[in-house]
Amino acid sequence: MRTCLRIPRILLPREGFETWAVIACDQFSSDREYWRRVERCVGDAPSTLNFILPEADLGEDDAARIEEIRTAMYSALESDVLSKLTRGLIFTERTTRAGVRRGILVCIDLEAFSAEEGVMSPVRASEQIIPGRLSFRVALRRATPLEFPHTLVFYRDKKDKAVKSLLREELEKLYDFDLMEGGGHLTGWFVPDYIAADVVNMLHTKGDPVFAVADGNHAVAAAKQYWEELKPTLRQEELGSHPARFTLVEMVNICDPAVVFHPIHRLVKDVETEAFCDFVMRSVRCRREGNVITGLPAGIEGVRIADELCEKFVRVNGGRIDYIHDAKRLQSCAAEEDCAGILLTAMEKEDFFPALKGGALLPKKAFSLGMSKEKRYYLEGREISYD
Q1: Do 127 and 26 share a structural domain?
Q2: pLDDT band at residue 45 under the 50/70/90 scheme
Q3: Within this chain, do residues 221 and 153 fall inside the same structural domain, yes or no?
Q4: Are residues 79 and 114 in the same domain?
Q5: Torsion sign across C-alpha atoms 151, 218, 178, 70
Q6: Would you say residue 352 lies in a domain?
Q7: Which of 44, 62, 297, 379 is most exposed, with the fewest beta carbons within 10 Å of its own?
Q8: Tens digit of pLDDT for each residue in 356-370?
Q9: Mean pLDDT in the chain?
Q10: Does the structure show a pLDDT above 90 at 307?
């Protein structure tokens, strides 16, 4: 059976998982104090914090930060901080307030991925890609030998066959620890090659698309863009197996009861608050509570309306748009000077795959898989070059 998945050789730290694992870089983008606490927690310990640039700090001497990340990755390789597993998968259990979310780490073939609207492919982006958010990610991938992804990809398995098959196996436990900053608990088991091959086949189901990115759309799009850049420089015999052709993701069953969709609210900064609120109130039926607009249509329709209004206002009047996961956090941010927000409601997860049929895309930041602290932490990695 031809597959768009590949069984990887995964890198893990030899010890110190508690300080090694940090949350996805696109979280807490309006909360620099969160990232300062992470820095204090990590201290001088080996950590994936040294391999990322939180979006809260993006735009502050990014080129220098890429060089620091490159140096940190080579240092980790040369100092024996990392252990390279034999070929296989990792089966994970992430315990959060929503329950125990199970996942399977595997590589996707970027030749099978598309983020272009109207293009049908086995692996699809789920939301519109913002070109400006790719440049740093592509430059980082260009410069570094490793990837430590935070991407979650949905598959459909109503009977949960893949997970149930792994629960029956006696697997080697790789890690079992509490994530920092209230991120819940994470446990992982190694799935050897001879079991992994059957699991990979179970993940494939009929449908358009077969797999879709749930979280980390820009990370996968950046990996794809880098691969397209690299391809013309490779010999024919290298094209099928070069490590940059693949990217590591965690596959999650959308039918898992612990998979809960949350809305991502809109916050506009550096605007005349009264002018923005008045503009929205005159444009669509809604309500105002302080500097927060509520009452827009539910789900995807509300997201489209909010984005259209925010972008139209900012184009004419200036300002910046940010994305906030928690309603209380939105209210707090909107109470600050020159800020206002739009409170949205979540789409139903049953609408997710049907909304992508035929190569369609959701609006950017249409939903959040869990709350901010429930997002994937950087932990497992792999080599993306032969350097």
Answers
A1: yes
A2: very high
A3: yes
A4: yes
A5: positive
A6: no
A7: 44
A8: 999 999 998 898 888
A9: 94
A10: yes
How distant is the alpha carbon of residue 221 from its chain centre?
11
Asked if 326 and 211 sit in the same domain, the reply is no
Which amino acid is it at 232? P
Q: Is the dihedral of CA 307, 308, 311, 314 positive or negative?
A: negative
Q: Are residues 247 and 275 in the same domain?
A: no
What distance in Å separates the CA atoms of residue 185 and residue 334, rounded to the nearest whole number? 32
Number of residues assigned to the chain: 387
Let me know if residue 365 belongs to a domain. Answer: no
Cα 270 off chain centre by: 27
Question: Cα(201)–Cα(215) distance, rounded to whole angstroms?
Answer: 23
Q: Supply the DSSP string of 318-367, one letter for each residue.
A: --EEEEES-HHHHHHHHTSTTEEEE---PPPGGGHHHHTGGG--BPTT--
pLDDT at 2: 62
Range of the domain at 48: 5-259+371-383
Residues 59-79: what's their mean pLDDT?
A: 92
Rounded-to-integer distance, Cα 219 and Cα 268, Å: 24
For residue 358, what are its two tokens? 């035929």
Query: Residues near 96 by Cβ (< 8 Å), separated by ≥ 6?
Result: 183, 184, 258, 370, 373, 374
Hey, is 302 helix, strand or coil?
Answer: helix
Q: What pLDDT does residue 57 have?
A: 83
pLDDT above 80: residue 329: yes
Please, are residues 321 and 306 in contact by the beta-carbon 8 Å criterion?
Answer: no
Please name the amino acid found at residue 191: V
Q: Is the pLDDT of residue 138 over 90?
A: yes
Residue 226 Cα to chain centre, angstroms: 17
Contact present, 341 and 265 (Cβ < 8 Å): yes
Label residue 1 by pLDDT band (50, 70, 90).
very low
Average pLDDT over residues 179-193: 97
Q: What is the pLDDT of residues 206-248, one digit of tens each?
A: 888 999 999 999 999 999 999 999 999 999 999 999 999 999 9
Please name the helix (run of DSSP H) or strand (run of DSSP E) that holds residue 74, with its range, or none. helix 62-78
- Whether residue 149 is found in the same domain as residue 280: no
Q: Are 154 and 137 within 8 A, CB to CB? A: no
Beta bridge partners of 267: 322, 341
